[in-house]
Amino acid sequence: MNKIIYLDAAASALKPKSVIDAEVDFLQNSYANSGRGICARSIAVDDMVMQTRNKVAKFINADSNQIIFTSGATDGLNRIANILTNQDGYSNSSVVTVSDLDHHSARLPWVELLHRGKVSKIQVCDLDENLDIKIDAIPKTDFLVITAMSNVLGRAQDVEKIIATARNKNPNVITIVDASQYVVHGKIDVKKWDCDFLVFSGHKIGADTGIGILYISDSEKFTVDKFGGGMVTTVMGDDMILESAPTKWEAGTLPLTQIAGLNVAIDESEKNRPDLNLIKYAYDELSRIEKIKIITSPESAILSFVVNDMHPLDVGAMMGARNICVRVGNMCASWIHRYIGIPGTIRISVGSWNTMDEMKQVIEVIKNIVK
What's the pTM? Predict the structure, then answer.
């Protein structure tokens, strides 16, 4: 087997040729800075940024002034935590609720703020027998972090119902959705979900690294967390007047090449969803092997498993030696692994480029490894 079989889409998607072409074309033929020029080329870049922002807004059913470009989901989640705890009148007695489904990026910013005395408590949502958030047990809280789909379990959470339940217990709760995995497999509707903040990374849907989306429902309400060029209309000595949203949230030069690629990646992701029949086939085949324990359910968007008496790193290394790329370890999701009592898993995740023939080859390799 000489061809690389890439089964790590959940970590980062391979880039469609159309995205690569869009970025190369931008760099070769259209590059200029945005928001800082009045020549035709600069204005064209401003138009490109606006078109991409509008496309993202439509993609998640938001308004364009609610869409903030970031460097990724991790950047967005850290910014949200800092934005919320640095508002005038903020109380350090606030309570944050998270879940064991969370990626490190969704929860660790709050852990740090707890250590610094910026929040008083971190609560953890109960999970049900399917390892989904137990909606009727969501506690009253000030901030609620929701992982819309775990990168270990691959199950979509009922975000709309989770938020509605949290608001019934506290109408003023601030809700934060990490949609990094969900965005690949499901339709995001921020208005229907009624979330206050949402993030995802472009590289999960085939855009470049270094571009993410931060959605802020009331983007004029909060005090900005970054300062610099482009986000002010006027500076008078030590005073400044901010631009309106979204510009006031985007200090400095934007990741323009990545934005050009994101414009195309959204179209590609909507046309070419991963074929989850490949995951179902792998589940059916591997579930017949006595030495393999599958962690995910048959309808999950990914497949995570362990092999009895074999370390996940060893399995991953042997698969890698046969040109198969999978993710092994705790997936930057320590809490769910601790919850189910294992140190790590082997994860198979597919993209639109994967085929059934590839998956059949992979299953044969796994069978040979675990013999």
Answer: 0.96
Q: Are residues 252 and 338 in the same domain?
A: no
What are the residues whose beta carbons fall under 8 Å from the beta carbon of 222, sequence distance 6 or more? 83, 84, 87, 216
- Same domain for 106 and 187? yes
Indicate if 325 and 262 belong to the same structural domain: no
DSSP 8-state secondary structure symbol assigned to residue 202 = G
Q: What are 19's two structure tokens?
A: 């995205």
Segments forming the whole domain that contains residue 25: 17-270
Residues 224 and 156 in one domain: yes
φ, ψ dihedrals at 28, nearest 5°: -80, -35
Work out the burial of residue 145: count CB atoms within 10 Å of its CB; fewer than 13 is exposed, 13-18 middle, 19 or more buried. buried
Q: Are residues 289 and 231 in the same domain?
A: no
Q: Model confidence over 272-307: pLDDT tens digits? A: 999 999 999 999 999 999 999 999 999 999 999 999
Domain boundary among 270, 288, 323: 270
Nearest to 277 by CA among 306, 300, 305, 304: 300
Pair (217, 312) in one structural domain = no
Can you give the pLDDT at residue 35?
79
Q: Return the SS3 of 27.
A: helix
Residues 9, 132 share a domain: no
For residues 177 and 200, is the Cβ–Cβ distance under 8 A?
Answer: no
Cα–Cα dist 254/242, whole Å:
17
Return the pLDDT at 38.
Answer: 80
Question: Residue 221 has which token pair?
Answer: 């309400």
**Mean pLDDT of the 183-195 span:** 98
H-helix or E-strand spanning residue 105: helix 104-115
